[in-house]
Each structure stands twice: as structure tokens, then as C-alpha cells.
Amino acid sequence: MQPTNTPTITLFDTTLRDGEQSPGASLTSAEKLEVARQLARLEVDVIEAGFPAASPDDLEAVRRIAQTVGTADGPIIAGLARAMPGDIDAAWEGVRHARRSRIHTFLATSPLHMERKLGLRPDQVVERAAAAVRQAATYCDDIEFSAEDATRSDPGFLVEVIAAAIEAGATTINIPDTVGYALPAEYAALILRLRTETPGANAVVWSVHCHDDLGLATANTLAGLEAGARQAEVTINGLGERAGNASLEEVVMALHTRRSETTCRTRVDTRQLTRTSRMVSHYTGMVVAPNKAIVGDNAFAHEAGIHQHGMLRDRRTYEIMTPTDVGADGTRLVLGKHSGKAALRQRLEQLECPVTEEELVSLFERFKQLAERQKQVTDRDLRALVDHESEVHDGRYSLVDLQVSCGRPGLSTATVRLADRNGEERVAASVADGPVHAAFRAIDSLLQTSSTLVEYNVHGVSSGHDALGEVTVRLAPAGDSSAAYGGYGADIDIITASAQAYLAAQNRLVEANGNEGSAAAWLDRPDSPRPESEVYR
Ligand code: KIV
Ligand code: ZN
Q1: Which is more confidently placed, 14 or 353?
Q2: Atom of ligand 1 nearest to the CA of 178
Q3: Which ligand is nearest to the CA of 245?
Q4: pLDDT tens digit sequence for 410-433
Q5: Residue 525: its pLDDT value, please?
Q6: Predicted pLDDT at 76
Q7: CATH 3.20.20.70 spans which residues of the chain?
Q8: In 276-375, where do the E strands start and end?
Q9: What does DSSP say about strands 332-333 and 397-405: parallel, antiparallel, or unpaired?
């Protein structure tokens, strides 16, 4: 159990600032406001609403968020500013209407950035950082200073700049891994060193801000928190420049799921995570990968038979958190080629399609054949298979083999092998002007029935080239148009589905004609074709 005095960190969401800087992820003002409202529902502590100096629209969006979402019990609203007087004025203009406002100013501290980007000497950087913080302090008392590219900066110089920023009035010190370069142990060591060596370190909140260029953003964030940082800067869905920022949902759920092993927690309402992720994805058009941790479509989906079997016995076998914890729809057992019989049975029960053990065995075989061809077997596919299975099960004759040859020009030939309930088989072949017609004729010749096809329908159950085809037919006994017997078939091959449907209808017709299934069905008809005989009509 986690001790009751576990510190609660400040969760700083920068989806609307660093996240919105992702190529192609721009949001309208109205969308930004909606996202900010949702972030407040999620109960983040700080919303970085934007970069007001960037444009009048950005300023306006930050102002609206500050006015609407920055209420007394709402989050702190922060605005970003370069260490420049005009930026700091604009940032204050944006956030000042919030009940709790923050100015976040930053300046690069790595040799590369100072020389090549800023053209400033280290002493000028120290002076500019302190001046920016001093200016911000004339507006509000919540000031964050970020040492951009901190992880490629000289730690001794970082101590100097940060000490000057604290002296000037900074209350939060952020150590960005701007280019996602750090390794977890290295990042933790840097945080620890700065906290130990910087004068005034104990008077401020230390913050971590990690980019994901090496896929380490979440690991680095957690390492920084373990090293004593008490603010984490994150974005929904890990949105952000290049490979993105540390993902809010990953950091929050790592701290939540491993609460006994980690040293801090968040105030976030985890049940809002999925909803927030979807909203951000929808508005930005940045699709969340299906295998994305926590919020991906497959985060709670299981396909492997062994996994599904384990899940059916006890969900903890393959789930370390519940879908409810993160507000997701629920665990999904995806039916595909790796699924086992237990998962098929469970899904059929959920669909209220009861099947006997015997039916399940043959249904499972057909399910596997379908799953080999289709990536996923949908509920509609399953219902079609069940309907088909009951036709086959109830029928007096069943289809064993079907071969057709067809094409243009020329006639089609169908060879059909049927079995009766005793397992006795007969074969017939017929020629017609199309493969379906030829198959129907071959069945007619085996069953010696005379009927009229009054309806024939075929359609795809689901989408895709490999979709299951469903066929329904209606037959009327010869000379009696008042009665009609229906039949249904489903198969990836529509000629097979057609033959199955036709045979199902013929089975009904045979039964209705009083020819009750006898033990030796074929022997009732001495004139029916013998095994392997050929009949051409
Ligand atoms: O990555 C970064 O360095 C930043 C700063 C502006 C905090 O986003
Ligand atoms: Zn950043």
C-alpha cells in the first residue's frame, strides 16, 4: 500500500500549446475551448492554453479559456512567452482573467541553442532570463521558467541560470528534454543534481517536460518524478512537436496502476481519459494508433485464443487495469483466426444465439475457415454462420462437395456430392448456362424432386473482398404455387452458399411431402444416382 502522505504532483497539460504545435494539429478557437473544458473535467491542475504572442487569434483563444475555464475551482491557466518583453505582456493579457493565472517564460541554455539560435553569450542568457521573470513578476506571482534544451546544457551553467530565475521570482522551474535526447537514469540524475546544487531550490516546484524522439518521454517523466520533480508537463495522446510529448494518459495510469511502487500520485479523474483522448483526436485529426497504450482501440482487445481463454476465467490474467478505470467501452474479445472455442461460445451467448456442444464443434470449424480469410469475424458473420448451421443440422441431406467450372463462352458444369443422415453419399453432375443453375440441377437430380425456384437473393454480410455471402431461396413444389419453402446458406463462396440454401429449401420440401427421413434415405429412391455416378440433364 502507498503511504497516506504520498505527494500529489501538479499535472500540467500542454496539449493546447506544445501539442497544438504538432504539424497538422491546429485547432479552432471554439475547439480549443471545448478541449480546455474537457481538461477541466479530467481535473488537470494547469492548462497551458497557448502562446499568446504568436498571433491575435492565439491571444484571443487563451483569453476565452482563461475567462471560461479558469474559474475559482478550475485549473490554473498558463500562457507561454519567450523571454521577451512583448511576449510577456501578451501572455499576461491572455491569462489575466483566470482566477489563477501563470506566466510561463523560457530561454534556451544549451551551447548549441545559445550560439546558433539566439546569438547570445551565456552571461547575456542569465541576464535575459532574470529580466523576463522579473517582468512577469510585476503581473502575477505564479511564474514558471523553462531552460530550453536543458538536457544538452552544461549542468553547472543550468545551476547559474536557474538560480538567477529563482532570485527574480520564478516559482516553478521546468527542465525540458526539448529534443527527447535523455535516458531515464541520466535525466533523473540531472533533476537530482539541480535540486541539490541550485540556491533556492527548495522554494520552487521542479518540473519535467519530456519529448519522445527516442520513445522515452514517459519513462523519463517518471524518472524525473522519482528524482523529486513535482510537476509533469504532458499532452493528451502524446501530441507534440516531432515525435510528441510525454502522454498524459500514460504518465497518469503508470502512477495509478503502480501506486505501491511509485512515490507520487495525480488528482486526475482517470475515467475521463478515453473521452478526452477521443475529443483531441477528433478535433486535431491526429488518429490514435490502435496499439497506443491506454487509449488505443486495441488497448483492451484480446484475440489470441490462449489470452481469450485466460480472460474468460479471470480478466487479471491479461489486463493490468480495467477499461472502466480509463472510461473505455469495455474489454473486447476480438474474434479472429487466433480465437479459441471458449471465446466463440462466449460471444454466441452474448449474442443470444444458443448452440449445442455438437453444433459448436462444426460452427467452430466454419468460423476458423472464415477467420483465415477475413481479418475479423463480425457479429453479423457469426449470426449468419449460426443460421446456416441450424439449416445444415436440421436437414435430411447435407452438402459434402461442390465443384464448378464456368466461364465465357461455354456452359457451366457443377458436380455435387450429398450425404444423407446415415452418412451415405451420392454424386451427380449437371450442365447449365450458369454455375448456380448447374449446382441446383445437380441437387435436383440427386433428390428427384420437382420444384420451381420462386425467389433467389444474394448479398454480402460485411464489407471487403473476402466478405461472407448470404443466400436465401424460396421453392414452390411443382404445380402448387400456394406453398413455398425457404432455405438459407452463408459462405465466402456464393455458389457454395447458393447450393446450401437450395438444399435447405429442398430438405423442407422433401419433409413436407411426407417423405419422413428414414434410416436409409437414398434406398427409398432406387432410381437416384449411385455413388460416383454421373447424370447429365
Ligand atoms: O520542449 C521545450 O523545450 C518546450 C519549452 C517551451 C518548455 O516546449
Ligand atoms: Zn516542449
Answers
A1: 14
A2: 1
A3: 2
A4: 789 999 999 988 888 999 999 998
A5: 53
A6: 98
A7: 10-284
A8: 301-302, 332-333
A9: unpaired
**Residue of 161, 99, 101 whose CA lies nearest to 130:** 161
What atom of ligand 1 comes closest to residue 18's alpha carbon? Answer: 8
> Alpha-carbon Rg of the chain, whole angstroms?
35
Q: Which CATH superfamily is domain 395-535 in?
A: Alpha-isopropylmalate synthase LeuA, regulatory domain (3.30.160.270)
Q: How many other C-beta atoms are found inside a 10 Å radius of the C-beta of residue 536?
A: 11
Distance 16 CA to ligand 1 centre (A): 13
Indicate the top mutation candidate among 14, 103, 146 to test ligand 1's pocket, ranked by most ligand atoms within 8 A of CB.
Answer: 146
Which residue's CA is minimally distant from atom 5 of ligand 1?
Answer: 148
Three-state SS letters, 85-121: HHHHHHHHHHHCCCCCEEEEEEEECCHHHHHHHHCCC
> What pLDDT score does 369 carry?
82
Q: How far apart are CA 447 and CA 71, in angstroms?
A: 80
Q: Which amino acid is it at 276? A: T
* The predicted structure's pLDDT at residue 527: 55
pLDDT score of 393: 65
CATH code, 10-284: 3.20.20.70
Q: Which ligand 1 atom is at minimum distance from the Cα of 245?
A: 1
Least confident of 136-150, 285-299, 376-390: 376-390
311 C-beta neighbours (distance < 10 Å), count: 21
Counting other chains too, the contacts that 134-137 makes at CB distance below 8 Å and 24 or more residues apart are: 134/168, 134/169, 135/85, 135/88, 136/81, 136/88, 136/91, 136/92, 136/103, 136/105, 136/169, 137/168, 137/169
Start and end residues for every CATH 3.30.160.270 domain found in the chain: 395-535
- Range with the lowest mean pLDDT among 25-39, 98-112, 211-225, 480-494? 480-494
Q: In 3D, which of 435, 439, 451 has the Cα closest to residue 508?
A: 451
| pLDDT exceeds 70 at position 72 | yes
Q: Kindly give the number of the ligand 1 atom that is closest to the alpha carbon of 106.
A: 6
What is the per-residue pLDDT across 111-160, written as a single tens digit (0 to 9) for each? Answer: 999 999 999 999 999 999 999 999 999 999 999 999 999 999 999 999 99
> Residue 83 is which amino acid?
A
Residue nearest atom 6 in ligand 1 by C-alpha distance: 106
Q: Where does the pLDDT of residue 451 fall: very low under 50, low under 70, confident under 90, or very high at 90 and above?
A: confident
Q: Indicate the residue type of 485.
A: Y
Cell 447458393 identifies what position? 498
- Closest to 295 in 3D by CA, of 270, 261, 269, 268: 270
pLDDT at position 4 is 59
